[in-house]
Amino acid sequence: MQAHDQTTDPLARERGHLAASRSALRAMRADAEALDIRDVTANWVNAAVLERQIGERVKSLADLAHTPLFFGRLDYLHAPGADQAEGAGGEQFYIGRRHVHDADGDPMVIDWRAPVSQPFYRASKKDPMDIALRRRFGYTGGDLTAYEDEHLSDPAEDERASKLLQREIERPRVGPMRDIVATIQPEQDEIVRGGLSGSVCVQGGPGTGKTAVGLHRVAYLLYAHRERLARTGTLVIGPNASFLHYIEQVLPALGELEVKQATVDDLVAHVEVRGTDDSAAALVKGDARMARVLRAAVRSHVTLPAEPVVVVRGSRRWRIPAYELEEIVSELLARDIRYGAARDALPQRIAHAVLVRMEQAGEAPDDRVQDAVARNAAVKAAVKAIWPPVDPAKLVLRLLSDAEFLAAHAEGVLSEDEQKAILWTKPARSVKSAKWSAADAVLIDEATDLVSRTHSLGHVVLDEAQDLSPMQYRAVGRRCTTGSATVLGDLAQGTTPWATRSWAEALGHLGKADAVVEELTAGFRVPREVIAYASRLLPDIAPGLTEVASVRESPGSLAVRRATKRGAPAPDAADLDAACLEACAESLRQEGSIGLIAADARIPALAKALTAAGITYLSPGEETTPDTRLTLVPASLAKGLEYDYVVLDEPAAVVDGEPDERTGLRRLYVALTRAVSGLIVVHSAPLPPQLA
């Protein structure tokens, strides 16, 4: 492997290609802006759709000043697809975030997702994949300043780690999450390029890049299956709004603007959430058995008919006896279709029975007659009595308010204690006045799906999945029943009382039991010293889980400090605050973002101390600026976020802030693994014994 600095002539040629590529991209954008659609649209609706598509195309062709158009080059030994035996000459391809072509349509930059780009991520000395040379480029800002060559088919050259690749991985993280398109590793690329038809679950410890892999997988699928996914839609689901804000620029940087983002709470927002559950109630409400209770409660509204239906048409009366109506109703129940769909089918079934009698009497009714009979007042009255409409929110309200109604449908499913745990002590009078919890909203979503089918998307990415309850998994699964899913998470970072115990169980609730489970164990973000320190917790929080092996060795990246004044018998709160501020000031002397992570209960005191010291700070999700690089992070919101330097305040308080020790230690594991370059742990109370 050869590295080259900015004084070499080849570098000047590569800069020339970069300048020419930028010029070509500007021309592509100008062509898109100049498109005249007046002669190709038949009406204003088509014109509006086409205009929106052109607008999105123009946006996707933006030349971002600090985002290199290409980051690599591949020199093939032979032209891809050519017969190698014939000795056809090789070709050269520049690999970048998007496709760029010149005025003649010849490619100047190849999209990283194209098949011809794959060897950039997969080729090695052992398997060169017909690559003579792989070149990586180094940038400072938007300027090309260096390159590095690997002659993969040259047996005389040894395989060595890429310094430019390492530098890109370790580049300071200021602002929102960025793409990893220049640094995707072979095991990550294999997941990214998986087919659309299959679902995949990625178990990855801190710093293994699972979130980035999931986002790049969406970008790849949109490239490979654009027409299909344009029809069916894609969705990225994250744990909270702060996390979504942090990742929201990744896909647009790759030219993908149509992917929607949401939290699970957003998906199930049928009612306003104003209440909270204690852990006992939340555990029961999140249990998959609640789906059986809800199904029984919905179907209980169906009443088998006791009276015949008599339809009067002109001078004739057509009678459908109760036993025949009962057969129709029983058949619809046995088909187990949605409650609302069956209710819609019932009047047509009754009308069909009437038409059979008409035909037997010598009449020749057609479809219009059947529709008219289905709308007959007697038929409507029968349907209302037999199969009344169900309001999902009112149904859940009754289950949580009416002990007898709940007992009738939870018998043999929930114990008496479990039923008591979810019953409201003060029943609400109406859907609007009820103080619904987040778990209640998921129950309403389940009931809504039992009444009418939820719309399914083509592909869903579910991040931080380990914290979902079985009922939340079902809610997500409903959004991809006819599509596929990419599930991302880390069992060791589950911090809810209902945290996922195994991926097999979780995928079953999601409806994707056949999903392939992949494990990422190579860490690229967290320094080796830091991840080793945090991994001391693994035997207690996730026995049997593989420890992340970080590729980043960074001596001095971990410091653990006791906050006491010299000679003092015991520390006090002022000592802890002062030690945290000192650690923050020290970290701010470094380049990059700083996260001060603390137990939620400690946040007000630290905010006050920072303000008094004149140190400006942000809340999670707010974008860092050159003047304000410190974010004050409650431990409950730290998951999924990352900072160049982290100051962790009082680990014992993080553990004590959770309802049980295992959850507390998992929360601490999350907090310990947010650092990219350095971690300072400040404590006054004794450290948890696992870390001591």
TrEMBL record:
Picking any one GO biological process from the record gives: recombinational repair
Question: What's the short name of a Pfam family annotated to this entry?
Answer: UvrD_C_2
Kindly give the InterPro entries that the UniProt entry links to this protein. Answer: DNA_helicase_UvrD/REP, P-loop_NTPase, UvrD-like_ATP-bd, UvrD-like_helicase_C
GO MF term list = 3'-5' DNA helicase activity; ATP binding; DNA binding; hydrolase activity
Arranged from A to Z, the UniProt key words for this protein are: ATP-binding, Helicase, Hydrolase, Nucleotide-binding
State the coiled-coil residue ranges. Answer: none
| Annotated residues for binding of ATP | 204-211
In this chain the UvrD-like helicase ATP-binding domain maps to 183-536
Sorted alphabetically, the Gene Ontology cellular component annotations on this record are:
cytosol
- Its protein name is AAA family ATPase
